[in-house]
Amino acid sequence: MADSTPPPWVWTDLDPGKLERSWRDLADWVDWLEDAYAPWVLLPPCWPDHEGLRTELRMYWYWHRWVQRKAVNPIDGVRWHQELRRSAQAWRDLANCRHDPPMPHRQQIRAGERRRRDDYIAEAIRAETQTAPPALSASQQPASPQHQSSPQVQQFPDPR
Length: 160
Ligand SMILES: [Zn+2]
What we know:
Blueprint: H1 16-36, H2 51-69, H3 74-91, H4 104-131, H5 150-153
Helix pairs in contact: 2-3
The structure holds zinc ion.
């Protein structure tokens, strides 16, 4: 078994024909899931476009297949159901997704959020630098090794 072989629920290496068949099979399984596990499982039609959701559904699909064909202990099936119900609760947040296609302004909002995050990071670094114990002169150096690195903090290069 080669270490580089991706697990069957990772489809990045599939050829286009196999990829399309896999998507069709997954969609059929998700249809079945929604029917069989209504009203617990309630998904928006745009589920294939939500990366986290489609990834999780794909894993549930393979997990279900394993439970149906390979599991030897009923606890495995019970666990699948318990986890499914828990995930289905989270999926409900998306059930009414109106799914506007990704808009340029969404990217701008994300970029703005990242700039704000970077400001917060800079502020946190400034605060930590200011509250760090002042560097001691050579004659005041404690013997404790944990203080030996503090003067070096000042020497960190500016990454920008
Ligand atoms: Zn959506």
